[in-house]
Amino acid sequence: MLHEFRVNIHAVKNVTITMEDEPLEWVRVQAAKLNISVSRYLGQVLEEEMRRSNAYEQAMRSALKFESWGKSDGGFLTRGQMYDRP
């Protein structure tokens, strides 16, 4: 007699979604290509989108925290001054 025990390390929740026939057929095909359930496929897609979104937000926060290395006492250089031209 063969017994199978499954242990979920992460708590998962069930969600019911509603979609049109065409996207449902597409997602079924994508899941079948990976030999996984539609539920698992959608979970993976959403997790990847979450990681991408979090990475973008983190990069944006980092960019907005940029501080100048120095302060300017005067106005901007002219083009000639910038390239040592008279």
Description:
The protein is mainly alpha-helical. The chain has a domain at 15-51. It is built from three helices and no strands. It has helices at residues 21-33, 38-64, 79-82. The protein is elongated and about 85 Å long. The N and C termini lie far apart (93 Å). The model has no long low-confidence stretch (mean pLDDT 82).
Which characteristics define this entry?
86 residues; mainly alpha; elongated
Would you summarize the structure shown here?
By secondary structure, this protein is mainly α. The chain contains three helices and no strands. The protein has a domain at 15-51.
SSE pattern, N- to C-terminal: HHH
Q: By helix and strand content, what is the structural category?
A: mainly alpha
**Mind telling me the C-alpha Rg?**
27 Å
General shape: elongated
Residues in helix, %:
40-55%
Average pLDDT, rounded to a whole number, is: 82
Terminus-to-terminus distance: 93 Å
Extract low-pLDDT stretches: none
Which strand-content bin applies to the residues?
under 5%
| Number of strand elements | 0
Number of helices: 3
Largest sheet: none
SSE layout and pairing:
Layout: H1 21-33, H2 38-64, H3 79-82
